[in-house]
Design goal:
single chain, two-stranded antiparallel sheet, Nucleotidyltransferase, domain 5, 185 residues, elongated, 7 strands
Amino acid sequence: MAAEVGGDTGAAKKGKKKSKARRPKKRPRIDMTPMVDLGFLLLTFFVLTTTMSTPNTMPVVVPPKIQKEEEVEPPKIPEGKVITLLVGNKKVYYYTGIENPELHVTDFSKNGIRKVLLERRVEVEQRYGKDEMIVIIKMLEEAKYKDFVDILDEMSIIQQKKYALVDITPEEKSLVEEYKKSVQS
């Protein structure tokens, strides 16, 4: 059975007078069957050639792993350029320098770690020059994946170019535990 648009059977219409015997006019008949095939063909083409969605990923540049025989001495960096962030569950512990670090705590709010990093950047720029601040990020065991994403978002928001993801040391773990105990008592 073919789908049709228009077309006249040529039968006389009801309610009209028959005057002269004329040949009835035929309307053009359009067969829509090939259009259905064409529609399915186009639909199949666009479904197969369209990308539905691409996964959104956050690029993290990781240096190549150094082999044992290639041990290289890391470059010496002045302590004043570095701020270390210890990221916990919705909290960020931070300190500057290496000798006798004084631990502070903040959160991920606009007036939290972002403000601390921007103030520290101003200090480093005045002392060493532009784009010299280095942020070392260390994740505590209590940290959630959301905390990791949040701290990387902060680096992106403030356009921090130099930062490193490093494993936390036992000394830093004990430093955080001592800080928690001093706050509780």
